[in-house]
Amino acid sequence: MHFGKHLRVGAEGYFSEHKYKNDSYVSVGWGGVLVDCAWKIDKFTLFAGGTVGGGSQQNLTIFTKQKNDYIVDEIMSYRNYGFMCIVPFVGFEFAMSKNIHLVFKPDYMVNVSNPQDDFVTGPRFYMGFTFCR
């Protein structure tokens, strides 16, 4: 939703997963309210803003190769926890048509409510499409 010439308000959500060689994995799902300022220059739109919301992270760490099915394994760790976050970002959109934009956006998620040693943090880069009305 646009407010004035530059302010945009909306919602967004993502799911990211990384798998390791030994079948271990980490996954993060989150979403929230997005606010950004956007400046349109011909077919490009530059933007900067942030998202405030929450999500959950799951970690499965397998310490040794599994040998048997249907037997309880004690050599692994599974964690699942929720968190609130703020996610600042910058980026740009390229208008491929009036209703379809190609989006490039780096961000950085900050866990503000439930810091954990195994929380996945650092810059992330997204590329995708936005469908506009």
Notes on the protein architecture:
Helices cover 0% and strands 68% of the residues. It is elongated and about 60 Å long. It has one domain: Porin, CATH 2.40.160.20. The model has no long low-confidence stretch (mean pLDDT 89). The protein has 133 residues and is an all-beta fold.
Give a topology summary.
Elements: E1 2-3, E2 7-19, E3 25-41, E4 44-62, E5 76-95, E6 100-108, E7 110-111, E8 123-131
Antiparallel strand pairs: 1-2, 2-3, 3-4, 4-5, 5-6, 5-7, 6-8
In short:
The chain is an all-beta fold. It has strands spanning 2-3, 7-19, 25-41, 44-62, 76-95, 100-108, 110-111, 123-131.
* Gyration radius, in Å: 19 Å
Structural class: mainly beta
The number of domains is 1
| CATH class descriptor | Mainly Beta
Structural descriptors:
single chain; 133 residues; mainly beta; Porin; eight-stranded antiparallel beta sheet; 0% helix; 68% strand
